[in-house]
Amino acid sequence: MTPEEDKFDSMPFIALIHHISRNKLKYSMKNPNRIDMFHEGRYLMEIYKRKNLSQDDLANFFGQSKGTIAKALRKLEDKDYVERKIDENNRRKYILNTTKKGEKLAILLDKDLKTWEAKVGIDKLDDETKKQLRQIARKSEEILKE
């Protein structure tokens, strides 16, 4: 490593992504609500965006087990951020929505995410680069199914 280089210059690309993700989680823990952004915060934001989401849909969307989702949802319910109701058309299915308190937090978390993205420069990435990164994420999931 030359004096002009730092650890990021020699880091594999996937390690850079991991590093960015890990630092985002650390940054998120600075929020006054101390919500777990690895699970709970992301789930809350998705439930807020996609009203009347089923618990199964949430598990499929995040690629998580139903047990992992259920555990996080219990925490969100205990904090009065989310409510689960039995689907009238399928009594074995739960429908998820945010409470008023959950809506306020989801909006705050989204604002916090956008602030962080601006601070680190993600908001400056062009649409083509964002599209390529999304495609890489899709492919990384697809190869697991092979």
Describe this structure in words.
It is a single chain. The protein has 146 residues and is mainly alpha-helical. Helix content is 58%, strand content 12%. The protein has six helices and three strands, in the order ααβααββαα. Strands 1-3-2 form a three-stranded antiparallel sheet. A hairpin with a 2-residue loop joins strand 2 and strand 3 (90-98). Helix 2 crosses helix 5 (100-120). The radius of gyration is 18 Å and the shape is globular.
Give the helix/strand layout.
Elements: H1 13-28, H2 40-49, E1 53-54, H3 55-62, H4 66-78, E2 82-87, E3 90-98, H5 100-120, H6 127-142
Antiparallel strand pairs: 1-3, 2-3
Helix pairs in contact: 2-5, 3-4
Summary of the model, kept short:
The protein has helices at 13-28, 40-49, 55-62, 66-78, 100-120, 127-142; strands at residues 53-54, 82-87, 90-98.
